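User: Sequence for Capsule biosynthesis protein below. C-alpha cells please.
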Amino acid sequence: MHFMTPLDLISNQKILVQTTYHPAPHLETEMEIVERLLAQGNTIYWIVCESDFKACFNNPEHTTMDCKVCFSRVNKGLDVLKKSSKHSENLHILKYRQFLTLEAFKKSYFQQDLHFSDIKELKAFHHKSYDSGMATASSLVSYTRNHEPDVSKYQDFIKRGLLTGGYLYETFQLVLDTIQPDMVVLFNGRFIENRPLLRVCQERNIKYATHERGGKINNFLFRINSIPHSIETISAEMDYLWETARNNRKEIGKTFYTNRIKRVEDAWYSFTKEQQEGRLPESFKHVENKKVITIFNSSLDEYEGLEGFGPYFYANDNEGIQKICESLQNHPEIKLYLRVHPNLKGLDNSQNKYLKEVIGSYPSIEIIPAEDSVDTYALINKSDIVVVFGSTVGAEAVFAGKKVVLLGRAAYENLDSFVIPKNHEELVRILMDDQYVFPEINPEDPLKYGYWNESFGINYNYYSPINLGKGTYKGKQVKANFILRELRRFIEKRKKTIQ
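Assistant: C-alpha cells for Capsule biosynthesis protein:
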C-alpha cells in the first residue's frame, strides 16, 4: 500500500528548486524531488550555480576544479532528468547572472572592508534584514570543525561568505519577482548558499520545503515550511508518526537502540564502532561505594549556527561542565566522568583545547577522550546518573533504564523520562541528593523517539543507495565528466606531494 507523503500532494504548481550541494545522495535527492514533482504536473525552475557561490559547503576554498566537477555532475543529473522524466518539457534551468551579476551587486550593495574581531561579532552582522553573518559563521564552523575559529585567520573565507550571502539575498528578490513561484525547495537551510533563499521565503511568506538525509539510508527528509533541525517540527512529527503507526511500533522503536549498540551504520556513521565492547575505565576498579555520574558532551560545531540549539542555562557545554566540576570538587563520594563525544576525535580545535587545559585541571573529573576505546554503552549501564547536553545518548540512557539529566535542547526533550533542571543550583542538588526522586520512566518514551528515527522520511523511488555516500539513479551512477574528475584527482595529489 502506498501512503501519501507531503511530496505526493504537490501538483499543478510553479516551483523554484535551488541546487547547492552536489555529493550523493543530495543531488540525487533533488533529482528525485524534481522528477516526482514533474510527474505530478508541476512546472519546475531549477536554479544552478556556475561558480556564483564564492564560498559554499561543498567547496569552501572556492577551487576552480571543484567548481567544474560540481557543475559537470549537476549537468549530468539534468541530462538524466531531461531524457527520462515525464513532462520534462516543464523543467526550466535558471542561472543567477540572468537576474543580477556579482559585479553589479558589488557596485550597488557590498561593503568591501569588513573585519571582525571574533565569531560573536561575525554572527551579529546583517545584510539589510538578512542574518548573513550567522550563515557565514555556521559554514565557517562546519569547515574548520571549530566552534570558535580564529576569524583573523579566515578573513578571506568570511569576505567571500558575506559576499555570496548578500549577493544571493538580492538575487533571490529578483528571481521571486520574476518567477512568482508557489513553492521553493532548497537543501538544509543552514549554510551561506541556501540560508538567503530561506530568509527571503520567510520574509515574503512564500511556502518552502527543505530536504536532507532521512532517518534511514533508503529515504530522504522533505519538510514543508521548516528546516531539518527544528525541534518543534521534530516533536510534532514524532507524535504524529507514533499515533498513526500501522506496524509494530514498539519493536521498530527498540530496533533503533539495538542497532546503535551493534554499531550498525544505516542512517549515518557510527561514532562508537572503534570502541571495545564492555570496556570500562581502569578507575572503575576503585569506584565501589561511590556515586558514578557520567557527563556526555556534544561536539559544539554541530549545532553552531542552528537556531534554538545549545544548553538551557549555560553559554555552552564547556561552561556547564566546568561549573559542575567546581561544585563537585569537594565531594569524594562522587566519581565524575566526562565521556568526550567520539565525533571530536583527532580535532585540534578550541573545544578540545578547553577540555584538556581547563576541564582537565579539575581533580574532581576524569576525562575519557574521544579516541578512547571505553565502551559508551558499558559506561551508561554502570553509571548511577547520566548527564547529557542534547546528544542521542540521553535517549539511549533512558532506554537502558538509567537516571538521566538533560541540560540542552534535544529532539527528544518533550518526552517525560528525564529531569531538566531550571538552573545550575538545582542541577547540583539533583546530582548530590541521594533521596532525589527521578521521574518513573515510561517505557514507551524512548521507543517513541526510536520509532521516529527509524520511520521519518520519504522512500526513494528512483535513487538506490550503495552506501552512505554512493548510489545509483535509475540503475546508473550520476558522475561528473571523467576527464575533469581525473584532472582534479591529479591536482589534489600533486598539491599533497608539494605540501
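The mean pLDDT is 92.
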